[in-house]
Amino acid sequence: MSLAVSLCVGAGSATIAAADPAGALEEIVVTAQKREENIQETPISITALSGSAIEKRGITNSGDLMGEIPGVAGFEAPGSRGTTGLTIRGMASGGPNNLSLDPAIGLYLDGVFIGKNVGSAMDVAELERIEVLRGPQGTLYGRNSTGGAVNFISRKPSGESGFRATGAMGNYDYRSLKLNIDSASFGEVGEGLGQIAFSAGYQTRLRDGFQENDSPGGADFNDLDREAWRVSAKWDLTESFSVDYNYDHSVLDESNALEQVVGFNSVDAAGLVDRVGAMQGILAGARAWAATPGTDPRIGDRWIPSLEQTIAAYQGVIERGPGRQDRGLADFSPSTNTETEGHALTLTWEIGDIVLKSITAYREMESYVFGDIEDLDSSLDSNGIGAYNDLLHLTLGGLYGATGGFDPGIPQLPFDAIWNGIDEIGAFHTKQDTDNFYEQFSQELQLVGSSDSLQYVLGLYYFEDDAEYSRRAIFVAPISGAPT
């Protein structure tokens, strides 16, 4: 539940449109086909949201479109906030947190293609309109629009001085603030240097976590901490030539959701041996090996109590079921820190029925994700005992089963390496530790025109991007080692 309060102060004339007695629909202008036209005359399966609709629905980024637009679904990448993979009509845009994958649903901000899904669901300070185009859009949008395209259009400077403020409060100590300011225009169109106007916007959203974190020193899970700001300039040199510049910046610094384990796959492909049952069988064998004189003392001292803790933890997951918990813990409290920014310069020249447009843009993104993507406590005590991951238990079971519980001390059977790895790395299930850096440059030239019998669009597009991906994540420690 939230409560919103808004304040608007402005200078200039105000016009209130009279209601159409015939109850006609409000005209909605879209640019889905690279030209301004009435949505009812656009032969595309399209949904357009106006600024007021966006505000009423609380939409601030692409992730908020899920469940709000017919045919649009998706998910946020586990362990990576602000990274959403949309699905339109069943066509998924790919693994959203994988920099090596290009999206199959094109996201555009003021005509600029967003090259990757990582960090693509960051807040935008002030949106004027959102256009969702369902179905393949390759004719006008290229190869990355197999499932469709989503256009985010931010608000241009109005040319009239004004200030707007909107705030909201809700449960879980939610609070948000939006500030927007417009300058009066300077100069006259077609005279001297023409007319120029500026606008700036800022917004922040904060909320406490949904689930308490029982880990020492960890922030509560699934909180909200986002900022976005935007600066725009519009320069009309003549009635037919204009220049638009937009700068946007977004920051996210949040604790990730509590990723609850709700079940376990079978050990075998046929689904006949459940994971807990397999570990119970290994536990019986370990007890027999520990009772045999001369076998590895670590079986009784460390492995058996760790097996018992793991089995108890897994059984606890099964007993509690899939319902969302109010609290949880993590060996490594999960978090995401992402920052994006972009520059876009658009030149528009109208020559009769022809519009020439140049869009030059540069964008960059930095993101760091860390922590568990499960809620199993695998912390070790001073003796190195804890709830090890099940693959480690199965591996030790196979090794000890081959030797009857003895450690022959030969390199082909690396008992010491595994136990030393547990001491050095741990025996946890998952830990993310990944840096992403991405930058892109694009240059687009458009020629849009029409005659009595023909409408046409010609274009030339150049795109260059560079990505760096550094991953120190560890899964099923220490079996995987600690690679980079």
Task: Set out the fold topology.
Elements lengths: L1 E9 L18 E2 L6 E2 L7 E5 H7 L14 E5 L7 E5 L2 E2 L12 E5 L2 E2 L13 E8 L3 H4 L6 E7 L7 E9 L3 E9 L12 E13 L4 E2 L10 E13 L4 E15 L19 H16 L7 H23 L6 E2 L6 E17 L2 E18 L18 H14 L11 H10 L5 E21 L4 E17 L2 E2 L9
Parallel strand pairs: 8-11, 15-18
Antiparallel strand pairs: 1-12, 2-3, 4-10, 5-6, 6-7, 8-9, 10-11, 12-13, 13-14, 14-16, 16-17, 17-19, 19-20, 20-21, 21-22, 21-23
Helix pairs in contact: 3-4, 3-5
Brief characterization of the structure:
By secondary structure, the protein is an alpha+beta fold. The chain contains 6 helices and 23 strands.
Task: Please give a structural write-up.
- The strands form five sheets. Strands 1, 12, 13, 14, 16, 17, 19, 20, 21, 22 and 23 form an eleven-stranded antiparallel beta sheet that branches. Strands 4-10-11-8-9 form a five-stranded mixed beta sheet.
- About 35% of the residues are buried.
- The longest helix is centred in the middle third of the chain and has 23 residues.
- It contains six helices and 23 strands.
- Among the domains are: about 120 residues, Ferric Hydroxamate Uptake Protein, Chain A, domain 1 (Beta Complex), CATH 2.170.130.10; about 100 residues, no CATH class.
- β2 and β3 form a beta hairpin.
The count of helical stretches stands at 6
Number of strands: 23
Please state the overall shape, judged from the principal axes of the Cα atoms. elongated
CATH class of the domain at 31-154: Mainly Beta
* Oligomeric description of these chains: single chain
Gap from first CA to last CA: 44 Å
- Give me the CATH fold name of the domain at 31-154: Ferric Hydroxamate Uptake Protein, Chain A, domain 1
User: What is the string of helix and strand elements?
Assistant: EEEEHEEEEEEHEEEEEEEHHEEEHHEEE
Strand content: 35-45%
The helix-and-strand class reads alpha+beta
Largest beta-sheet characterization = 11 strands, antiparallel
Secondary structure: helix percent:
10-25%
> What value does the average pLDDT take?
89
Which CATH architecture of the domain at 31-154 is right?
Beta Complex
Kindly report the name of the CATH homologous superfamily of the domain at 31-154: TonB-dependent receptor, plug domain
Computed CA radius of gyration, to the nearest angstrom:
29 Å
The poorly predicted ranges are 1-23
